[in-house]
Design goal:
The chain is of the alpha/beta class and about 375 residues long. The chain has a domain of about 140 residues: FAD/NAD(P)-binding domain (3-Layer(bba) Sandwich). About 35% of the residues lie in helices and about 20% in strands. The chain contains 13 helices and 14 strands. Strands 7-6-12-13-14-11 form a 6-stranded mixed beta sheet. It has a 4-stranded parallel beta sheet with strand order 9-2-1-10, covered by helices on one side. Strands 3-4 form a two-stranded antiparallel ribbon. A hairpin with an 8-residue loop joins strand 3 and strand 4. Bound molecules: flavin-adenine dinucleotide.
Amino acid sequence: MANPYAYDAVVIGSGPNGLAAAITIAQSGRSVVVYEAQSTLGGGVRSANLTAPGFIHDICSAVYPLAIGSPFFRALPLGKHGLEWIQPPAPLAHPLDDDTVIMLEHSVDATCENLGVDGEAYRKLMGWLVDQWDGLDSDILAPPRLPQRPLSLARFGLRAMRSGRRLAENVFAGQRARALFAGLTAHSMLPLEYAGSAAFGLVLGVTAHALGWPIARGGAQKLTDALASYLQQLGGEIVVNKCITALDELPSCRAVLCDLTPRQLVNIAGNRLSPRYRRSLQRYRYGMGAFKMDWALSAPVPWTVAQCARAATVHLGGTLDEIAFSERAAWSGDHADKPSCSSCSPRFSTIHGLRRQSTRCGPIATSPTAPGSI
Ligand SMILES: Cc1cc2nc3c(=O)[nH]c(=O)nc-3n(C[C@H](O)[C@H](O)[C@H](O)COP(=O)(O)OP(=O)(O)OC[C@H]3O[C@@H](n4cnc5c(N)ncnc54)[C@H](O)[C@@H]3O)c2cc1C
C-alpha cells in the first residue's frame, strides 16, 4: 500500500538533538525532513564571523567532551563528513586570587600533583571513574533503563546525587580542590547546594580525563555541518529559514519531533496538547541565563599566571564560596557583583595565527522585561 504521508517524520529545530533524532530516523530507512527557523543550522552549535574579518567565533557552545564521548555520536562517521577533533594541551585552568592556578590536566596523576593535600582524595574520587568510564558511560548518559554495570553505577550515583558543595566539602580539605570541583559543578546552572549538582562536576571532570576537552577544528559549526552532511547522505532533507508557527503548517507525517523549549512547544502545538500537559509546559521555569562576549585578539591573553594559556577553558570564579554565591544569586533573580565566568580560548583550532576568545559570564539572572540591562 502506498505511504499516505509526505514524510515518516518531521523534526522542528536543527540543534544537535534535532539532527541526532533525524539521523536516527533516516538510519532506519524512514523519510525525514528538518525545519530550521534560522538561516544556518545548528542552534547552540554554530559558528560565525562575529568580530574582525577572518575570525570565526562559536556563537554558543565551543568545547565538547560530551559529544566526543557520546555513545551515539561516536557511532556516526562524522570524521568522513569533515569533523576533526583537536585537543588543547590542558583541558582546564582555575586561577585563584593568590596568583596560583589549579590545572586540570589530561592525566589524573598530574592533576593530583597540583592539588596539595587533596591529591589523594582527588585520585580516589576520580581515578576509578576514569578507569571505568569506557562502559559506564552508556549507563550514565542513557535514559533510565536496566544498567549494564549496576554496582559501578550505584557507586557513581551515591556521589552524584549529592550537592556539589557537600561533595566538595566532604571529600576535599583544601580550597584548591574545592574550587576546581565548584567550577566544574557550576556548569550545571544550578545552585551548588542543590542535590544532584555534584553529578555535573563528576561527569565533566571524568570526561576531561577520559576523553579530553575537544574543540572542533574550524569551529563548532563543523560538528553541525558533519551531522547535516551525514543526514543528507542518508536521504534526510533539511529546510532552513522556515520558522514553524503551528503544527498545521507541516507536511503530512506520522510523527513530529520538536527540538524546542517548553513554551515554544506550547506556542506551536496549541490545543493539540492535553490541558494538563499544556499547563505543565506553561509552568516550566527556565533556568539562569548566561552572558557571552567574543573578542578578536592580536596576541595571546596576558594571563597573570602563564599556565592558564595551556588550557582551552579558564574558570574565573574564585573559591567554592565565591562560585556558590554567584550561582545562588542568579538563581534567586539577583546579579552577583563578581559573577563566575568561563573563558574559552579555542585558538588551538585557528589557522594563520589568528586568535579568538570568548568569555561566558554565567550565571546571570534572566530579565525578560529588560534584556538591554544585561
Ligand atoms: C552560552 C552557552 C555555552 C554553552 N557551551 C557549551 C559547550 O561548550 N559544550 C556543550 O556541550 N554544550 C554547551 N552548551 C549547551 C549546548 O549549546 C546545548 O546543550 C545544545 O545547543 C542543545 O541542543 P538542542 O538541539 O537541544 O537545542 P538548540 O541547540 O537550542 O537548537 C534548537 C533549534 O531549534 C530552532 N527553532 C526554534 N524554534 C523553531 C521553530 N519554531 N521552527 C523551526 N526551528 C526552530 C532554533 O533556531 C535552533 O536552531 C552551551 C550553552 C550556552 C547557552
